[in-house]
């Protein structure tokens, strides 16, 4: 994510306009067919302004989709007390369902197996969160389990978006949840 001018409200508004314009463009055509000229016209900013904030369309797309990373991390940790080992928290199923409107864009940025630019952001952020939680709990295997959780979730999410895994949002949420609970239970 590009955050160089996070304190400048004008820059934040401009990036928000560019992100919204990109999502609107990608609702009409694949990212590969979106041009900077059409994007800046829709956003109401100049071409030079675009390049002040982003080096290319992929960087903007990752930034526009980065909320999905925050939402994924929140959904995976939306439980209190002892987690149900079979049923995912409702927030996780809701997260999977929320991906539908921009699924083609997510598929472009999240390669099968969990790679790609959005996959790297998802893996980094989810691993960092899981590592903090595992270390806070005093788990000796914190780095290993944090990496496994991040890789498992990113891989399952990507493969589901690409159609390599079947199931409704609720079914895939339960399935990935069971895998993650098993990882956390391993010693």
TrEMBL record:
Source organism: Streptomyces griseoruber
SUPFAM superfamilies listed in its UniProt record: Homeodomain-like
Stretches assigned to the HTH tetR-type domain: 12-72
Highest taxon listed in the record's lineage: Bacteria
GO molecular function: DNA binding
Matching Pfam families: TetR_N (PF00440)
Protein name (database record): TetR family transcriptional regulator
Lineage: Bacteria, Bacillati, Actinomycetota, Actinomycetes, Kitasatosporales
DNA-binding region as annotated in the record: 35-54
Keyword entries, A-Z: DNA-binding
């Amino acid at each position: 994510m590009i955050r160089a001018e996070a304190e400048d409200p004008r820059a934040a508004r401009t990036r928000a306009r560019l992100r919204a314009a990109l999502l609107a463009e990608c609702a009409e055509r694949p990212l590969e067919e979106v041009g900077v000229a059409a994007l800046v016209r829709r956003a109401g900013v100049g071409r030079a302004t675009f390049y002040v904030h982003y080096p290319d369309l992929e960087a903007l797309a990752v930034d526009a989709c980065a909320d999905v990373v925050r939402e994924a991390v929140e959904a995976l940790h939306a439980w209190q007390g002892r987690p149900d080992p079979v049923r995912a928290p409702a927030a996780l199923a809701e997260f999977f369902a929320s991906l539908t409107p921009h699924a083609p864009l997510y598929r472009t940025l999240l390669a099968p197996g969990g790679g790609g630019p959005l996959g790297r952001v998802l893996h980094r952020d989810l691993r960092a969160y899981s590592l903090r939680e595992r270390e806070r709990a005093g788990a000796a295997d914190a780095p290993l389990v944090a990496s496994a959780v991040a890789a498992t979730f990113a891989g399952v999410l990507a493969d589901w978006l690409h159609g390599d895994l079947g199931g409704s949002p609720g079914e895939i949420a339960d399935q990935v949840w069971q895998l993650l609970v098993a990882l956390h239970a391993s010693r």
